[in-house]
Automatic annotation (TrEMBL), chain A:
This is Probable cytosolic iron-sulfur protein assembly protein 1. WD repeats lie at residues 62-96, 140-172, 187-218, 422-438. One of its GO terms (cellular component) is cytosolic [4Fe-4S] assembly targeting complex. Keywords: Repeat, WD repeat.
TrEMBL record, chain B:
This is Uncharacterized protein. Belongs to the MIP18 family. It comes from Aspergillus avenaceus. Gene3D superfamilies: 6.10.250.1280, Fe-S cluster assembly (FSCA) (3.30.300.130). One of its GO terms (biological process) is protein maturation. InterPro entries: FSCA_dom_sf, MIP18. It comes from the Eukaryota.
Amino acid sequence: MIMTTAKPTAQITFLSDLTPPSFERTWLTAPHPTLPLVATCSSDKTVRVYSLTKFELLSTISGGHKRSVRTCAWKPYVQGESVLATGSFDATVGIWRRWDGYNRTEESTESWEWNSETPGNNRLINQEEDDEEWRFAVLLDGHDSEVKSVSWSPSGMLLATCARDKSIWLWEDLNDGDNNFETVAVMQEHEGDVKCVAWHPVEECLASASYDDTIRLWREEIDDWGQVSCIRGHAGTVWYVDWEGVANEPSTTAVTGDYTALFAEWKNQHVLSGPRLVSCSDDRTVRIWRRQPKEQQSQSVFGGTGIPSIIRPIGTDEAWEEEKVLPQMHTLPIYAVAWSKRTGLLASVGADGRIVVYEEIFITAPRQNLDAGSPVDMSPLPYTEWVVIAVLDGAHGIYEINHVTWAKRTDRDRKEKEEEVLITTADDGSVKVWAIAR
Amino acid sequence: MASEMQNSNPTILNAADLPTRLRPTSSNKLGLFGKGLFAPTLLAAEGTGLPFTDSYSSADSDSDGDLLEEPIDEQEIYDLVSTISDPEHPISLGALAVVSLPDISIRPTLPNVPASPLRTVTVLITPTITHCSLATVIGLGVRVRLEQSLPPRFRMDVRIKEGTHSTANEVNKQLADKERVAAALENGTLMAVIAKMLETCQ
């Protein structure tokens, strides 16, 4: 009745390589928020922009960084233009701009609604000129050592950057047409390299992962950014954190009978806690973290509309608890984990070259009485379990996989409108696109 | 580098006592090397300095069907790292017993996946003195040497031997951190030190 075994029920099928690849290590691939594009960061000091429709290189952004480009992120909610932030081992963060026009030359079958009305789309661009089209806007200088991760806040107003110097910087994009950024805060509580920063999907709350084995959460309170939680639990460097989507729900395909009331209870608890966090570590585990709800925060700060909100919670300190350790499927450090905002599926990758996909399923479990002496209360309680639905060994041959992300599928063989692909980025410079077949 | 040595009088082993391969191998070729910073120069140096260079003398041997990769064993790993020089003495890590054959092991990286070609090379380092601050540099030198010499199906596990160093955990964490190692490879000052240590490798 309930599937709890690790028997894979889905398949990770290869769709395409992104070609031509980098000849050096690639670290991360970031899907564009609206266009069928991705940006891949490479040790060759460049960023390659590929089409997710044809899986081909569109342009190469070079000349801005003196060392490896480790990370990049697309700014959300920009009209008619794409804005990319890049972080490098040269300790700087670059901001790059380009008028949108890729889908002209792409002959895309998809029309991107807002795009047709924006001025950027009226420019006719020759393929040959594409490389010239990326305009270097500004270099953000402040970190003392290698920048490891960058992330835009849900509204696109704030850019968070972190480095080996143990600090997190917050920059405000003043949007004054002059590419001015203002330093809003420098947070230095971490005791080791800050490996990853990730913004809450709708609130101005930042999560960070570190070489000091902790995950920390940061919020602004009365014009002051500060740490609101320090989550301990991992026994090694935390390489990556990602947030759950706001409206995510576990799969109910495994439950039989009437579970409506229990499912409503689960959803209610979920709204009280807010989106959960997932993290992966050198300790070979993937863990899910949940915020303990506060009475004062009992109402949802977002209406499920997906529109970014800047409503601050009352009080600052947050208690986060470990909800689950996912089935241990990796033999070497896990470098990245991605929580799909569309399907709720999780994917993890790492040094062992394996891709693992997990699904959260809703089940009803008997209520366990904490007092061992008393009889077990058999009334069910809402409960979920994570099962491994697909595993792929040697996804990039013998090479380590540095990053995984979900993106909307846009190639011609797409079957459903909301179909997703997995994109993995590896040490040999290869970037591969995968479909999940259920 | 500090002008004062941390260990001015280290114990040095006699070269004749160091482990060597008893039977000559047909080739010391290690297959396709990585794309490390100094890979081309190291390759060139190795081509000229090898005691058994059959495969190099006959340039066509590759196309002759010599497709089988020479199995890589502990002695070969030892040969690769024992000739690295100590950063403060013109003496090899082998002669200083910083690396030794019994502290090198090769095992399948994914024991549950029998078909996987991945292998993990573990090299335990014994610093000459317990508080040696150069332990990280030595470890990095060993890791860089292996990364540049071994095919990419090898995973490096370079650690300080238990009980031989006061801050072993800290050093081990750094040496195991892929991102830090990658960044170190782009650091000119540090790589100059490493290149000097690797100069004596043949």
